[in-house]
Specification:
CATH architecture: 3-Layer(aba) Sandwich
Radius of gyration: 18 Å
Distance between the termini: 13 Å
Largest sheet: 8 strands, parallel
Bound molecules: manganese (II) ion
Number of helices: 10
Strand order of the largest sheet: 2-1-3-8-7-4-5-6
CATH superfamily: Ureohydrolase domain
Order of helices and strands: EHHEHEHEHEHEHEHEHH
Structural class: alpha/beta
CATH class: Alpha Beta
């Protein structure tokens, strides 16, 4: 629990005040925190629909509805973790190499002074910066990656970096252990089938949607436990892993994806692992409707923070299975 006072929802309605993520305290230079939420407003790596630079704002705006306390949860995540919203990275909108370098430097500094980071994208190219920063702190990482695309594409249009390539660079740079990397939700059309071979040849486990239909949520949770237990794990979630019916507001939508419920069920395994970093990327609000994509991204972020608390054994052994509806709103609904 952070030392700063939180907004009391019993006194201030959830649509009021500056919208930090989940209305958590803001801190521009956080130190000694369990987790830091940071926006990465950048979309210079998008190959189709742009607009993910506005993702962090839209995700924060929808996140004010999330109390953290939940029916399956007992205590709220803001009662369990010292977590703050550190605002946004200031990234060059023009030069991709500059943006990735700026993000790497800033995220590395955040890791030096805090335990974990939740990055709100922005397009997926910034995950390379997050992996570089997390690797400096933790060494080669296991990865859980939800996405319609494997993002192991080679350079394209003369650009070395783009939103389809972060995991190829991460493998080439030795930031991740490809045999301890699981990609879930891969499907649809690809201009470069060799990019899947690139990943598979190095040991990456690719769970296509056909595989998902075979294995189900429980089977994939077992697979994740088998491949990533005992390793520092980075969790990267491209919102286009969800079907466009659940996440229309994104740059390269692909029908036939996961439901919101399947994603939220899957990531509950994260608390049984050793997660060290998280991102939720590729929300493009201009293509969204009624905020459903941003709200899903916010819910995923909230769930990841709760799972992080679980991984730190910060959640009481027997959390309440039901919310006490008679308790004071000022106590539970902040
Ligand atoms: Mn994608
Ligand atoms: Mn992606």
């Amino acid at each position: 629990m952070s030392s700063e006072p939180r907004i009391d929802t019993a006194l201030s309605p959830r649509y009021a005040q500056l919208p930090t993520f989940m209305r958590m305290p803001a801190a521009t230079d956080p130190r000694g925190r369990d987790a830091v939420v940071i926006g990465a407003p950048y979309d210079g790596g998008t190959s189709y629909r742009p607009g993910a630079r506005f993702g962090p704002r839209a995700i924060r705006a929808e996140s004010v509805l999330l109390h953290g306390v939940g029916v399956e949860r007992g205590p709220g995540v803001l009662d369990l973790l010292d977590v703050v919203d550190a605002g946004d990275l200031d990234l060059s909108p023009f030069a991709m190499e500059n943006a990735i370098d700026e993000a790497t430097t800033a995220l590395t500094a955040l890791y030096e002074h805090n335990r974990a980071i939740l990055m709100l994208g922005g397009d997926h190219s910034l995950t390379l910066a997050a992996l570089r920063a997390a690797h400096r702190e933790h060494g080669p990482l296991a990865v859980i990656h939800l996405d319609a695309h494997s993002d192991t594409y080679p350079p394209v249009y003369g650009g070395r970096y783009h939103h389809g390539t972060p995991f190829r660079h991460a493998i080439d740079e030795g930031l991740v252990q490809p045999q301890k990397m699981v990609q879930i939700g891969i499907r649809g059309h690809t201009p470069n089938p060799g990019s899947l071979s690139f990943a598979r040849d190095r040991g990456v486990v690719i769970v296509t949607m056909d595989d998902f239909d075979e294995l189900g949520t429980a089977g994939i949770k077992r697979l994740l436990l088998e491949h990533t237990t005992g390793q520092p794990v980075y969790v990267s979630i491209d919102v286009d892993a969800a079907d466009p019916a659940y996440a229309p507001g994104t740059g390269t939508p692909a029908p036939g994806g996961l439901t919101s419920r399947e994603i939220l069920a899957l990531i509950k395994v994260v608390g049984d692992l050793q997660p060290v970093g998280f991102d939720i990327v590729e929300v493009s609000p201009a293509y969204d409707h009624a905020g459903i994509t941003s709200l899903l991204a916010a819910e995923i972020g909230a769930e990841l923070l709760y799972q992080y608390a679980r991984s730190l054994d910060a959640v009481p052994a027997t959390p309440a299975l039901t919310v006490d509806h008679d308790s004071s709103p000022g106590r539970n609904n902040r």
